[in-house]
Design goal:
By secondary structure, the protein is of the alpha+beta class. Helices cover 50% and strands 18% of the residues. The strands form four sheets. A five-stranded antiparallel sheet has the order 2-1-5-4-3. The chain is rod-shaped and about 160 Å long.
Length: 485
């Protein structure tokens, strides 16, 4: 069936199941019909033998009884009788049974109730036999036997079989047709989904699949696919914005480099002027290099490069090392840098990248804090996570900018333009944290300062020295220079 369409497969399965169900119902129906016909035959046979016994009870003398039975029951439609005494000697026999030997019966004194059986009398055919033990008017045990042909029962039963055999194929054909129509109706939304999906392309990502009934399986499928298209559209739009922003950011240093070179070549200049041009060119080249490195880092993260195993990392010691490296920078700017209550827990991660993460955050905090301000780094740990807090008393950010600070090339507002950067630093920080299975959040208020919260999964003592798997794509090519928000 693999080469058939879903509609044909549903139709065939429906027909097969219907055929099996019809066959089972037909067999049960015929069995019940046969039982009913046989029950009617037995009931008629019992009525006839009861009538025979009533006639016997009206006569006290056995000779008169036999004479009366000869007159009334020697030939009696298609019912035939036989009476045996307690020694199974024949007392009365219908004319039909004169030359026919019935199966031997039980002595009447040993019998209890009615006994039905089928007997085959050769050319005469198959008959239904009823044996009944009674006592005559003188309390003598007698065995009454009555038979009737089974041919009428068999003929009626065959007529029912013919009816079932005729209607069965018709029902199967009707089931095939009904299954084909019903499956076509049920699968019509799939055709609509298919036709609509064909229209969705890179330049028409806003198209969505129709939802006929959101509560059935096809409605759930359409909803799930539409959600997938929403995520795809969002990813494509993000990629387009990223490409556009990257082109814009790359164009600025390239334009400066070109302008400086063109101005320097317009006329001869002395050594100091050429040196100034080279210094400005170097500054822009360094910035361009940082931007390219960071773009490469983010592109590798987006590409989802292969995984790698890492060992446990003493993240508190890494933060202490970063604080020591930036202590001179903070002192030069007149900012008080302090670390307190750093946890000694281990996390599964990459020490270089975790170092770059906290370097970026702490360096940013120093840059956005005026002289006389403070930058405080602290931490806390629970049974499952370890948290670090990077707080400063700098210029802060307005609340409307907080949801976007981790977006690429996003700069909060004009008051921060003095601190020139690429706009990718916090995006890389977020990539590092997410690669380690953690979360990073920000709290800030304009003029009051900013607080970054980094939450990383903590390694329990049972898992120490066990390699963990993190995303390699964000563990390569981290720029050594500090980045800004």
């Amino acid at each position: 069936m693999k080469g058939l369409s879903i509609r044909m497969r549903l139709t065939l399965w429906y027909a097969i199941l219907f055929m099996g169900l019809t066959s089972a119902m037909g067999a049960i129906l015929l069995w019940q019909v046969h039982r009913h016909l046989l029950h009617n035959a037995d009931r008629a046979l019992a009525e006839e033998i009861g009538e025979l016994f009533e006639e016997m009870a009206l006569v006290e003398n056995q000779e008169e009884m036999v004479a009366e039975l000869e007159r009334r029951f020697s030939t009696h439609s298609h019912y035939h009788f036989q009476i045996l005494d307690e020694h199974l000697n024949k007392t009365f026999t219908s004319r039909f049974l004169t030359n026919i030997q019935l199966p031997p019966g039980q002595p009447p004194g040993l019998m209890r109730g009615k006994q039905y059986s089928d007997v085959d009398l050769g050319r005469a055919g198959r008959f239904r036999l009823l044996d009944l033990a009674v006592r005559d008017s003188s309390s003598t045990p007698l065995l009454l036997r009555a038979i009737s042909p089974l041919k009428p029962v068999e003929q009626d039963f065959r007529s029912y079989v013919k009816i079932i055999a005729t209607l069965g194929p018709l029902a199967v054909v009707a089931a095939l047709l009904a299954g084909y129509l019903v499956s076509g109706h049920l699968l019509s939304p799939i055709q609509q989904i298919t036709n609509k999906a064909r229209k969705i392309s890179g330049d028409r990502l806003d198209e969505r699949l129709p939802i006929v009934n959101e509560h059935d399986e096809l409605g759930e499928l359409s909803t799930t696919l539409n959600e997938t298209f929403d995520r795809l559209e969002s990813s494509v739009n993000t990629m387009r914005r990223f490409t556009s922003d990257a082109a814009h950011e790359l164009r600025s240093p390239v334009a400066v480099l070109r302008t400086e070179a063109e101005i320097a070549l317009r006329k001869p200049r002395d050594a100091d002027e050429y040196r100034a041009v080279v210094e400005r060119t170097l500054t822009e080249a360094i910035r361009l290099g940082e931007l390219v490195d960071q773009l490469l880092t983010l592109s590798r993260h987006d590409a989802g490069v292969q995984k790698m195993s890492t060992d446990e990392v003493p993240v508190g010691a890494i933060v202490e090392d970063v604080v020591a490296r930036l202590a001179a920078t903070a002192a030069d700017k007149g900012v008080h840098l302090e670390s307190v209550n750093l946890p000694t827990d281990f996390v599964a991660g990459h020490d270089v990248w975790l170092s770059q993460l906290f370097f970026n955050l702490i360096d940013n905090a120093i840059k956005f804090t005026a002289a006389g301000g403070k930058v405080n780094i602290s931490g806390a740990s629970s049974c499952d996570h370890v948290e670090f807090f990077v707080e400063d008393t700098g210029i802060g950010m307005a609340e409307e900018h907080l949801p976007h600070v981790f977006e690429r090339f996003y700069r909060a507002d004009g008051s921060r333009e003095h601190y020139r950067g690429t706009g990718l630093g916090l995006s890389i920080c977020k990539s590092i944290v997410e690669a380690h299975g953690g979360e990073i959040n920000v709290e800030s208020e304009r003029g009051e300062g900013t607080r970054f919260i980094v939450c990383l999964p903590r390694l329990n003592s049972d898992h120490i020295a066990t390699p963990q798997t993190i995303d390699r794509s964000v563990l390569e090519n981290v720029p050594n220079q500090a980045t800004v928000r």
